[in-house]
Specification:
This protein is mainly α. Helices cover about 85% and strands about 0% of the residues.
């Protein structure tokens, strides 16, 4: 009995570590550790079931069945939870945006700065400034999108991003005719950097929408906690039934 409780607690702790881990390797390692503890619980439960069957005590049999039912419910939660935890889509979205996204943004700003320095048309300069401001706001919105749990709010953020993207496209088109030939390379680089950024943006949103880290944390905090408490309560009742028997040796 004590071994089952110990393994159950270790499984829960490993699951929580898998949920909050910051790398795929750590998440996978903790998830495997949680699964190993769960497998050991199954083995211990099977052995205990055989002992109870040999003694043929109805109350113990009933309490074991109740514990088994709660344990099966907890394992079902874990199966879904650990799959979400190791997917790490929100973490991947954050890393992608912080690295590749920021790099593309820097390339865009550097290219636009070169275009601005070469340009003498005030209206074009204002358009280029608007483009830089819009892409910077997109970056901020994407960082807000990644941890967002509400699908409605994510949709709202994406709508704002689309509007800002139209601002960038419009600003580049408006400034284009006024950019001198000396800045043609910078103009081409700005166009390429913007295209690269948009591809990264789409992938960030796709990963963020999967929301596996957000969902796994919510499941761990609420559903898993409830299932764990029910399982431990059932185990306590089983222990009490065994201890109340003629020989309390298990």
């Amino acid at each position: 009995m004590n071994s089952i409780q110990r393994e159950l607690i270790e499984s829960v702790e490993a699951e929580k570590s898998a949920v909050v881990a910051t790398t795929d390797e750590e998440s996978t390692a903790f998830a495997e550790q949680s699964k190993r503890s769960a497998e050991q619980i199954d083995r211990l439960k099977t052995r205990l079931g055989k002992l109870i069957a040999e003694d043929d005590r109805p109350q113990e049999t009933e309490k074991l069945a109740a514990f088994s039912a709660k344990w099966d419910e907890l394992k079902a939660v874990d199966t879904r939870l650990l799959a979400l935890a190791v997917a790490n889509t929100n973490l991947k979205a954050g890393r992608l945006l912080a690295k590749e996204g920021s790099a593309a943004l820097d390339r865009f700003v550097t290219a636009v700065d070169a275009m601005t320095l070469a340009c003498t048309d005030v209206t074009a300069i204002r358009s280029l400034s608007a483009a830089v401001g819009a892409i910077a706001r997109i970056q901020a919105l994407l960082f807000a999108h990644i941890p967002e749990a509400s699908e409605t709010e994510m949709t709202t953020i994406e709508a704002k991003i689309r509007t800002l993207a139209e601002t960038v496209d419009g600003a580049l088109r408006a400034a284009g005719p006024s950019i001198p030939a000396s800045a043609s390379d910078a103009s081409a680089e700005a166009t390429k950097a913007w295209a690269d950024y948009q591809r990264i943006e789409a992938e960030v949103i796709r990963l963020s929408r999967l929301n596996t880290n957000v969902i796994s944390f919510d499941v761990s905090t609420h559903e898993k906690r409830t299932a764990t408490t029910a399982c431990l309560d059932a185990l306590t009742e089983l222990r009490s039934a065994i201890q109340a028997g003629p020989v309390a040796t298990r």
